[in-house]
Specification:
Elements: H1 6-26, E1 36-38, E2 45-47, E3 51-53, E4 60-68, E5 74-79, H2 84-90, E6 103-108, E7 114-119, E8 125-126, E9 129-130, H3 132-135, E10 146-149, H4 157-179
Parallel strand pairs: 3-5, 4-10
Antiparallel strand pairs: 1-4, 2-3, 4-5, 6-7, 6-10, 8-9
């Protein structure tokens, strides 16, 4: 077995790093990963629909999504050091109907299947103070993650009216059948 000289291996390593940097700067996806970005314009942008840009210029950012019972659901470009609580904050926070104890992160594996990570937002707080130990239990996000925030659907007047009307009409029909 021949050993490669250290000068030759250093030049190969240098070539690999420069190629990787060029690919990242050109925006060419690596290993099917197209949710990473390098830098931005430095402003918080809201595109038409539900696409928000909270990226930091000159840093690596990635795309994630948050759906369900948050104030502004949609796709987000966020800094790479963000965690799930940061994304929920970017999304305007949870609505009153949201379940704080059953938040879910769907993370795609390399074989295109998803894994499910569950966490509780209540774990961050102890009493009224923020706890560093509990904040570490909130999962870090990766490019392409989807946060799903389940909740209880809100009943509007028309929903209550439809339910009440169907019950009253059923009771009237039963009373007519019984008394005839």
């Amino acid at each position: 077995m021949k050993h490669i000289k250290t000068e030759n291996s250093f030049s190969i390593l240098k070539f690999c790093y420069s190629t990787l940097l060029i690919l990242l700067l050109l925006g060419i996806p690596l290993c099917g990963q197209n949710n990473l970005e390098l830098g931005s314009l430095g402003v918080i942008r809201n595109y038409s629909g539900s696409f928000y840009d909270f990226s930091e210029p000159g840093k690596i950012n990635f795309r994630v999504a948050v759906w369900g019972y948050v104030r502004n659901p949609g796709r987000y470009i966020i800094p790479a050091a963000s965690n799930a609580a940061d994304l929920i904050s970017y999304a305007g926070g949870l609505t009153p109907e949201a379940f704080f104890d059953d938040l879910r992160i769907y993370r795609m594996k390399e074989d295109s299947t998803y894994t499910l990570l569950k966490f509780r937002l209540d774990d961050i707080f102890t009493g009224n103070e923020l706890s560093k130990e509990n904040r570490l239990s909130v999962p870090e996000l990766k490019a392409g993650d989807i946060i799903a925030v389940p909740g209880q659907p809100k009943m509007y007047f028309r929903d209550w009216f439809a339910l009440t009307l169907s019950l009253v009409s059923t009771l009237i029909s039963l009373s007519i059948l019984l008394f005839k």
